[in-house]
Structures are given as structure tokens and as C-alpha cells.
Amino acid sequence: WTEKYRELDKQFDALVAQQREIVIKDQMDQIYTANGGEFLNAFTSEDQTAYFVRVPKNRLELWAWLESDRLLDPVFREFYSERDVVFEERRLRTESTPLGKYDEAFNAVFWEASPYHWPVVGWASDIPMYTLQQAKDYFATYYAPNNITGVLAGDFEAAQVKPLLERYFGRVPRGKTDPPPVVTIEPKQLAEKRFNAEAETSPTVRVWWKGVPLVHKDTPALDLLSDVLSGRTGRLYKGLVVGRQVANEASASIDPRKYGGIFEAEVTVKDGKEPAAAEAALHEEIEKLKAEPVPAEELQKVKNSYKANAYRRLSSPFAVFVQLVRYDALGDWRLINTSPELADAVTAADLQRVARDYLTKENRTVGVFLRKAGAPAEADAELAALPPQAQAMVRQASQQIAAETDPAKLQEMVEKMQAMAGQVPAEMKPAFEIVLKRAGERLQALSGEKK
Q1: What is d(CA 63, CA 27) in angstroms, rounded to the nearest whole number?
Q2: Distance between terminal CA atoms of the chain?
Q3: Residue 306 class from Cβ within 10 Å (0-12 exposed, 13-18 middle, 19+ buried)?
């Protein structure tokens, strides 16, 4: 560094030290906590950022005042220290995990032109370059009433709350600049892409196909198709784990977003088996869905499960909030009411059609992750006393928990698990408790990072 740079750096550190002497750390959280509030946090995904807190009914006016004030008159008091926190979050979640950097690279291979090509937290070289002025400009553009949806879920009278909202949030002016539209849409994929990597992980085969946005007419069919493949009674588990015995775990899911989507399948390869054999078995199961309609009984089973899960997601105000804020950001908040009906209308012919249309060789990106030479096989002391089936369940759940960066989703998971704790069979109780503990620990870690 030059002498001038070292001098400026020293001045900057002195200014930060002076700031920290007068800044009240986590002041908003302290105010909420003193008034019975809890779970003040936020999450960011590819399509939205959401802030949330749980407050007593008689503290709604406090909430309206605080939240409208930080929109009306934002003060970025700890911008530089928070920028450092974001960089540390990236290091912990991406660069210090066995598959973090590979997941990021795989995502960049999958998306060619779409903004989804970029990681949510940004590339490592991006974060230190963000300036305070850029943050202010971004806030002025995106954190304005013309780009914000507010969600209240819980026990309140709408007629009493509306004047409160108008009084406080009505004073926040419309943004001077509208958010720019997304103009680059992912083009049709022309050929299969392959991604081969060696990492400190169990051998894994991952296949992503280009899907559709959440509001697309084919989303319900693709969602049910993933349910046909997933779970202990799903085709992938029965075909690859129980039948061919080439995998320890196998699952499928969809990730619909605002401007695109993913249909994904992942297989954890059994020790001693070749990833190529597991991949071939996965493709065989996909081809069966194209060749033969799903039997009526099997289709009805996944529909019943879908509708039951939709009902369970109404079990708490927080779960309702998560759905409303997500559905609205991705295109239509009314899906909280209509998605069960849309799923119920799906036919076996619809499943066969979307399998043929979307799950093609040309439309897929295949990732094969091999265990790096010299890397030890995974060991988990907590799992040693569990039976093999329970070990596999905990291992899969732990991977999902570790990969989750959304505190709202984890909070919802913990609440659901706590609600069903009394219904868990005795033989699965130890495994259930391990998963619940790990979900709670991960939630606590994320909440600590976000504050």
C-alpha cells in the first residue's frame, strides 16, 4: 500500500471507532424486546427481501411507527461494519462449507443469461466494493411504497388497523425512480451441460432442468411430479435406494421463481457404487414418467399430501406471513388460497406432458460431485446409535438445514416440528430430536448473523 492509503485507512478506522462510541447497538431490537416483540429479522432471496417481527396486538402502533420511520428517514449508521458482516456470512456459508463454492459455480453454469446467474449475497469481489452512496441509491429505488408489500398476520381487527397504517405509512413518499424492469430472460437451453467436481463430500449426482415461474400454468403439474418422485414412498427412493441399491438418498423438488424456475433431482450415491450407475437409474425413472401415465391411486396420494401440507401451512400467523410475502413477490398472493384447487385439477396426462416437455436431455444440467482423494468419509457421532434408516433421514435433513439461509423458512420448520413432536413414533424419536436440535441451532446462528 502507498503511504497516502495507509494514512487514509488510519483516519477511517478512527472515524469508525468514534461512531461506535455513540451508536446504540441493536437499538431497534432492544425497543421491540422491551415491548414484548420477538424474532426481529430479515431474509433475502433471488426475488425479494423481507423484514419481519412478531409483536403483541397492543403494540401494533409501535411497529407502524418504527417501520415507517426507517423507510421515511433511513440512517445507515453501521454501513461499513455491516458490509463486513455480509462478507463474513459469505465466507461461512459459501467458502467454508464442503459444497458451498461448488453450488455457486453449478448455479452459474445452469443460468446463462438470467440475473439468477449471480449469487444472492454477491461474488466475493463485489462485497468490498459496495459504497455507502450505492446503498442509499438502492434503498431510495427499491425500499419505496411503489415497490413494497406489507403483510400483517394474526389477531387484529382490520377496520382498526387500516387508519393506523394510513397514518404512519401514508407519510412515506413514492420513490422518485421506479425499479428498472428485468429485461433479460433465460433463453431456451440448446444442449445438456455437465459439471464435474471433486469435493469433501459424499459422492452426489445433481440434475437441474429449466422449469417455469411460480405463476405459470404448468407449475402445479411440475410440483406434483416432483412429489411422485420424492419421499420414502416416492419412485426415486424405491427405485434407487431400495430397488437398485445404488443410493443412500434420492429426492426431487421444484424451485419456482418470478422469472424462471428449476426442476431438480439429487442422489447421494451409496458407498462402493458408481455415480454413473446412480445417474443412469435416475434417468430411467424419469423416462418411465414420460412413457406411462401415473396410476390414479398414486396421483391421488400425492394430491392428498399436497393439500394436507397446504392446510398445515395455515397453522400459525408466521407460516401465513411467509406464504403471503413469498407468493406476492413471485407474482400472485392469492395462491395461498388457490394452489390446492390448482393441484387438484392436475391429471395424469398433465404429469406425462410436463415430463416430456421439460425433463429432456437438452434442458438439463448435470452435476457429478466425487469425494476428493484423501478426504475422509463423513462421520457423525450423534448418528452412530441410530438405525440405518434413521441415519439416512437425519443426514438428509441436516444437509437441507445447513444449506438453508432463510431464517423465516427455518422458523416455520421448527414451529411445525414442535407442533408434531407428540405424534412421532417412539422408534423415530431420537432421530426427530436430533433434527429439531440442529434446525434450532441453525436458526439461532442465522438470527445472530442478521442482527
Answers
A1: 14
A2: 33
A3: buried
Q: What is the mean pLDDT of residues 339-357?
A: 97
pLDDT in tens, 381-437: 566 667 666 776 787 788 778 777 777 777 777 877 776 676 666 667 788 888 888
* pTM value surpassing 0.85: no
CATH of 3-169, one of 1.10.150.530, 3.40.1090.10, 3.30.830.10, 3.90.1070.20: 3.30.830.10
What local confidence, expressed as pLDDT, does residue 450 receive?
Answer: 45
Cα angle 444, 448, 451; round to 5: 135
- Strands lying side by side in the sheet with 204-210: 193-199, 364-371, 204-210, 261-269, 247-256
* Domain residue limits, the chain: 3-169, 193-378, 379-451
- Homologous superfamily assigned to 193-378: Metalloenzyme, LuxS/M16 peptidase-like (3.30.830.10)
